[in-house]
Specification:
mainly beta, RNA Polymerase Alpha Subunit, Chain A, domain 2, 2 domains, four-stranded mixed β-sheet, 15 strands
Length: about 210
């Protein structure tokens, strides 16, 4: 995964007044925290963060503080954002500090690759999970999780425990379904938990 660079400025003032003043300047308040780093407050250009979220969603972010250059100790991920419900503008961002040698937990998009044989036979490809939680080293975070669905026949499915990708530990409380090929004529529907829900059949009235 590429590492994006973002310029930030150190700030010491807090409160609604400083937040309003920053927003008039086209900036927003930000904070960086983590298990291995002290909490630090910043100001950052709002449009720069919004552009980062669009072009490099989920990317590692190297913070350039006060124009002093990028340091490994300031590597971060965007942990949370706040949006103004009226304007729709970004008004606050949280950075979570990470270290190159320590695993972190991130959410990655799922990309399905190939045309299932079951689709050629009349089935329907049914994605169940669009993202997956993984734990890995910062430098080993992929852009996405690519899953080959070519060999899936009608009724077949891929579960999280079927995945084996070097360097990635999948965070899953149960062996849930990620993708399946359904029979379009009906029968069973796969839920988000990977369980099957049978079609209800009305009993004949005697």
């Amino acid at each position: 995964m590429a590492i994006a660079e973002l310029a930030v400025e150190t700030r010491t003032e807090t409160g609604k007044g400083i937040a309003r003043r920053l927003r008039r300047q086209g900036k927003i308040p930000a904070v960086r925290y983590g298990s291995q780093c002290p909490q630090t407050m910043y100001a950052v250009d709002r449009m720069a963060v919004e552009r980062l979220l669009v072009e490099n969603a989920g990317a590692l972010v190297a913070l350039n503080v006060d124009g002093k250059g990028v340091e490994d100790e300031l590597l971060s991920i965007i942990k949370d954002t706040q949006i103004d419900p009226v304007t729709g503008w970004l008004i606050h961002v949280d950075f979570y500090g990470v270290r190159y040698g320590e695993p972190i937990q991130v959410e990655l998009p799922v990309v399905l690759e190939g045309k299932p044989v079951g689709v050629a036979e009349g089935g329907l490809l049914q994605p169940v999970r669009r993202t997956l939680e993984v734990k890995c080293l910062p430098r080993q975070i992929p852009e996405n999780i690519v899953i080959d669905v070519t060999n899936l026949g009608i009724g077949d499915a891929i579960h999280v425990n079927d995945l084996d990708i070097e360097g990635l530990e999948f965070i899953a409380p149960v062996n849930f379904t990620i993708v399946t090929v359904q029979n379009v004529s009906g029968g069973a529907e796969v839920t988000d938990e990977g369980e099957e829900e049978l079609e209800e059949v009305e009993a004949p009235v005697e």
